Amino acid sequence: MIKLLGLFLIGVGFAFRLNPLLVVVVGGITTGMLAGFSFNEVVAMIGRFFTDNRGLLLPMVLMVPVVGVLEKHGLQERVAALIRRSKAATAGRVAWIYQVLRGLTSMLGLSIGNHAAMVRPLIAPMAEGAAQARDGQPNDQAREDIRAHAAAAENVGNFFSDDILVAVGALLLIKAFFENAGVEVALGDLKRWSLPTALWVVAVGWWRYRRLDTRLKKAAESKNTIR
Amino acid sequence: MTLLTLDVFLVLCGVVLGTVATLIAIDAAHPQRWGSAVFWMVLAVAIGAAKWLPPVVVGYGVLGLTLLVATRRVGAPRFARGERSGLEARAEALGNRLLWPVLVVPAVAIVGGGLLDLVKIGEYSLVNPKQVPQIALGLGCVVGLVAALRATGERPLAAAREGGRLLQLLGWALILPAMLAALGGIMGKAGVGDVIAKLVANMLPVHLPFVAVLAYCAGMALFTILLGNAFAAFPVMTLGVGLPFIVKAHGGDPAVMGALGMLSGYCGTLVTPMAANFNIVPAKLLELKDDYAVIKAQAPFAGAIWVFNIVVMYGCVY
Fold this sequence. Notes:
Number of helices of chain B: 14
Structural class of chain A: mainly alpha
Radius of gyration of chain A: 22 Å
Distance between the termini of chain B: 49 Å
Distance between the termini of chain A: 60 Å
Shape of chain A: globular
Mean pLDDT of chain A: 90
Radius of gyration of chain B: 24 Å
Oligomer: heterodimer
Mean pLDDT of chain B: 90
């Protein structure tokens, strides 16, 4: 039980909104030392795991110069101008379509994008542009709402359609785990039983993004009546 | 023997980060000039040169980064957005030339992901097959950068400056994912997962078939919330609760359980700050005021999907 103290500290730290990086490092050192490692050993472990996982930073660090230099020359404005030409576009529909597309590519085991490569340069400005065309310039709260849902579309699309047609990640991991545990599982069955949730997620997205559109419209109307 | 390894791109990351650090160091107007410059320079070394350094040195380097962040010595200046009308005019002039550098990145990543490991020159293969997706994405970014510089007529230093603007918005959030992976590794070594699986199995009446499903799906979500990673939660919960109770005691189908169990874990990923890469980094990258805004938007998704998973698992697993 004492091993859980590190996790408990992390929970408390997040609850009090301390800096997450500090919380995680303190939690990790506590856990390691309670398990009987010396401080230096824990630091070396942190170094080794950090080294092994530093590839996580790669898509972000190499992508932001591309996005940054294009934004300096009006990328976001260009994307917004393009989407305004479509009368049917709303912030919610942009997010829903992106979620579905992201899900379809994820089914094939492809990764078309992430937050740095797609959401910031394309999807968020598209959704904002669509909202602006319908309801006028969104206020800060509405903009925050739109952007958060654009990020959600990326995550939801990415997570719940993994590997259904071409397995490259999660399902292979599940199969390998069962094999190690001596349980026979067919990859085709894993794929089949991932499908219902993948379809359900499309419906959930439709519901959530419609609610977003309704909220945006209401906010815009109340603003107009005050004026 | 491989010709192109991930190390090339990690060194390139180090060069980008080092340039950002240098630009901060020579910027007298930067509000937290030296703390920020040191932060980005240490990070540049930790990313670019980690392979050639002893782990304990990297570890202390990372602790140093954390101290700089915790004592609030790292910050970003207020960046002036260009004049709106000016940007719109520029966007009008450049048109779709602005778009295709962004689109070429995933295009190269997908095509490269399919083709790179086929390239062989005699005994030399071009890349290590395990690194193909990351290398393809790295290549995509490099091609995208060249395209972006050509389209805008900017020099490479401008890319470092603009990239630095976005990286400084991210700040500490950039290294949180790698640190969480380190935390997960330490927890694994300390055996934290087994303690949790035992707790779940002991506290709940898992001899009832429905409770076993509920405990397994709840355990997957909770453990993912705590660790930020469904892949870490899966072996622990499946060994501790899933296999002994759902499969062995009640004769459940492991394929149904495994697929829907992992998907229940993803519901946890949607609502935890510990999955920083998916939830906290985008909030920073999209310049949201609330670091938890993405999590709040995703919470209803997570709830609806999690309940669905339980219903399908209970309906089909036995």
